[in-house]
Automatic annotation (TrEMBL):
Subcellular location: Cell membrane
PROSITE patterns found in the cross-reference section: ABC_TRANSPORTER_1, ABC_TRANSPORTER_2
UniProt-listed Pfam families: ABC_tran
Membrane topology of this protein: Peripheral membrane protein
Signal peptide: none
Domain ABC transporter: 5-240, 257-505
Protein name listed in UniProt: Nucleoside ABC transporter ATP-binding protein
Cellular component GO terms held in the UniProt record: plasma membrane
UniProt key word NADP: no
Domain of life: Bacteria
Classification via Gene3D superfamilies: P-loop containing nucleotide triphosphate hydrolases
UniProt keywords, alphabetically: ATP-binding, Cell membrane, Membrane, Nucleotide-binding, Repeat, Translocase, Transport
GO MF, one example: ATP binding
Amino acid sequence: MDYVIEMMGITKEFPGIIANDNITLQLKKGEIHALLGENGAGKSTLMSVLFGMYQPEKGIIKVKGQEVKIKGPLDANALGIGMVHQHFKLVHNFTVLQNIVLGIETVKGGILRMEDARKKVVELSEKYNLFIEPDALISDITVGMQQRVEILKMLYRNNEIMIFDEPTAVLTPQEIDELMVIMKNLTKEGKSILFITHKLNEIKAVADRCTVLRRGKYIGTIDVADTDKEMMSEMMVGRKVNLTIDKQPAKPKEVALSVERLSVKTQKEGHTKDLVSDVSFEVRKGEIVCIAGIDGNGQSELVYAISGIERMSEGKLMINGEDVTNKSIRYKNTHGLSHIPEDRHKHGLVLDYNLAYNLILQQYFQPEFQTAGFLKNEKIYEYADKLIEQYDIRSGEGTATIVRSMSGGNQQKAIVAREIGRGPDLLLAVQPTRGLDVGAIEYIHKQLVKQRDEGAGILLVSLELDEVMNLSDRILVIFEGSIVAELDPKKITVQELGLYMSGSKKQVKEEEAGM
């Protein structure tokens, strides 16, 4: 059998952790080969070894049967290997075209020549149905479009072997479907794809074979068509995983959050635009209310306004019956609000602090953790150890681990531990399982239901329709900054929910219908 890539016996170690322990991976020409594993299983590390970003301690890599040494991404590119990273590597104030040619520009007589590049990029985008606007700035295009730019970068460099690292983590359901079609088109043209993911339905949809890693070790390679999702999740987690959520009906009590006529406006090129317009709702203690919508319909701005990250233009906000409209973020945090933010790097963690300090970011000023401005480190580390054990946060060096070096899933668990550990009355959970594997998702869902049953009010914001349908007690659909429907998850289908989210269906209020 001819493999285009063979990685044999790859071992890669970091301080305190063996990320890849004697792993073998073989990619056939023209196949989509999924690499499945929990967060921290070693998938991204293995692909970074193939892309030359890390050097393995042991093992060999063969490309088209020849043993090679890949010292860096330039070597990988020269061998026809390209990679789309989970966090895209694009220059935001450059255009699409400039990003695609960056690093392999055509220069004649000291002048940048873009005509040929533009022609080639337009031809490639038509051939692969990757419709993009070459002159748009990266900062002005959607995440789905940015991903197409990353794919065009690989095609422009004639990469035959393409690595996609968690490519769907930031896409809407529609963009995910489009990406699957694009991947199949690429393999029809003879490209070979390595696809890192932990979403089982995506593997079922596009992959031919799948290699499973668990805690840095190779578990096995399977044919996707012959293996069901339950079997794959068991290989990945090492035990049976409950893919449905067990929860009792909600018993809502007093109001934890009351939002009255909240609006968020922005000034753009002289016009005022409503990002959130005139939104009112309540969340009671003991229920999970979900705001569902396609990304970019005002849910982020709504959460920023409630948490205090951004100002609201109009409206009133009450937590536990107290008006907190003009209170500081710290005041809200110490008066019942916890917030699991959607961007864990930007708003959730201080990446260069250690794990212990990240776990007390909203409490370090309390008497328990400081005296006269001096931190009580012993108490901080004690508290952190307790959370690490309780929430199974895995890292190379425990409380001393610098958070930047942890896997995405464990960074997320740290935020969840910190926010729930404070025993909130109101928990804003925004995309709490984005980019997590089934084991971690199951865990976080259980924690949210447990919080609800212990009497917290939970406002969940999610783009994952399964999560919305399974976790919510009530669903509020947001479309273009307004709440267009309030739905009961037990009474509607995913398809119906999708229609409300895309704006093709609106709920008629009873008084308008002449009731």
